[in-house]
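Handout, section B. The chain below has 218 residues.
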Amino acid sequence: MTREEKEREISAVVREKADYHRAPPSLAADVLAALPANPASAPRARFSARTWQFWLAQGAAFAGVAVLTFAATVAWLRPGEDERHAEDILAAHVRATLGQHTIDVASSDQHTVKPWLSARLPYSPPVADLSAQGFELTGARIDRAGGQPVAVLVYKRRQHTIDAYVWPAREAVGGIGLSRDGFQLERFGSEGWTWWLVSDLNKNELDDLARLLARGAP
């Protein structure tokens, strides 16, 4: 996309998204009061200090609106890292589910799944067997998130598939929850790991799995 095309796109977004406010009735009176009583007899009349203060205040107000509008436009056009990860993970989950390729290694044994992942990734992810808590480990696969290969643990809860993406955390990770097109996504951190869960399971049960994984159960 060329610079001109980007500018047109930003202009279109501003026109669509920006709030428009009618000028207050007092503005016209203030403008008229600032003009000389007889323009023909005073073509070089100067504004008073009070008039300059008024226009400076108006200019600052309009500049503030412009800055806020631009910031909102940039934020809308450039989603944050969390938003990009959420979009990547949801797309990968749907792609794997529709393609019926949710698992590369099928096993409920963590001692089988963990070595398989460790041999194919530059890290050894935590793998928990949570069958006793109602979340059956059915296997794992390697997928992509944030432009890098990551481990995906696959759990079952009744007829629902849950993908648990996990990779080493570069910094402290806070918890967030999102809903997208009927799917629930949840991110949290635990002992140096970043986790993302995605499923069509209800939020309360997905929260239960997040708590179990966060504390390394069992």
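Note. The chain has six helices and seven strands. Compare this with the example in section A.
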